[in-house]
Design a protein that fits this description.
The chain has one domain: Galactose-binding lectin (Jelly Rolls, Sandwich), CATH 2.60.120. The chain is about 10% helix and about 45% strand. The protein contains 2 helices and 13 strands; from the N terminus they run αβββββββββββαββ. The strands form 2 sheets. A 7-stranded mixed β-sheet has the order 2-5-12-7-8-10-9. Strands 1, 3, 4, 6, 11 and 13 form a 6-stranded antiparallel β-sheet that branches. A hairpin with a 3-residue loop joins strand 9 and strand 10.
């Protein structure tokens, strides 16, 4: 079973964190530059991805590396997308996958991905997830269903093989608008943010780095 399907089913029974103060301009999710993983938990799916905070130049980043394995870090946090729709993050591909057939089960691996998950309570079919991925074959801005989880978990290629390895990219996505465009619904709350670098299906060795993650009002 793919890590994507396990991720979204794993989240269902969890209780929510207390809602953030939505009046803030920025809501920090991953404060890796502060040398902390507070609030993040790890879930192993097929072997273990190695995550570690390291100092690089003048800041601390989160490095991830994996060899034929898949585990992820997740954080439960309730975000009101009507006030803070923008997801902001930085990432870098340090060792890329070769081109994979990413719409198939055998190719469902990504050097870097960030999930946003809407819980469906006790009902899996009400759960929604967008995976913002660094693709190896699909073109930037392509959208497709996960090969295991189907249309409950949609993938969106933010970066692709045409983007440079070893270069930091800063991203900003309007999650509210992405949810509406992809699922055809006005979804105003997300409940989980997760990150993963995985290679359990392809059996590759890959690595990536992540900078701070936050939601903002604009």
């Amino acid at each position: 079973m793919t890590a994507t399907l396990l991720f979204i089913t794993f989240f269902i029974p969890f209780s929510l964190f207390a809602a953030q103060n939505q009046r803030e301009m920025s809501i920090p999710i991953g404060e890796f530059s502060h040398n902390t993983l507070a609030g993040w938990e790890e879930k192993e799916f097929s072997g273990k991805t190695h995550y570690q905070l390291v100092k690089e130049d003048d800041r601390v980043i989160l490095q991830a590396s994996t060899n034929a394995a898949a585990s992820g870090l997740f954080k439960e946090v309730e975000i009101d997308l009507s006030t803070h729709p923008y997801l902001n993050w930085e990432w870098r591909a340090d060792k890329l996958h070769p081109p994979l057939a990413e719409r198939t089960k055998a190719g469902d691996d990504y050097v870097a991905r960030i999930y946003v998950v809407v819980k469906g309570g006790l009902f899996f079919w009400n759960t929604r997830a967008i995976n913002y991925v660094w693709a190896s074959s699909e073109k930037t801005n392509s959208v497709w269903p996960n090969a295991f989880a189907g249309k409950n978990a949609m993938l969106l290629a933010v970066r692709s093989s045409t983007d440079k390895q070893g270069v930091w990219y800063r991203e900003k996505r309007n999650v509210y608008e992405d949810m509406k465009a992809i699922f055809g619904e006005e979804i105003k709350t997300i409940h989980v943010v997760a990150i993963m670098t995985d290679s359990d299906n392809s059996k590759d060795s890959v690595a990536a780095s992540y900078g701070d993650i936050s939601f903002t009002s604009n």
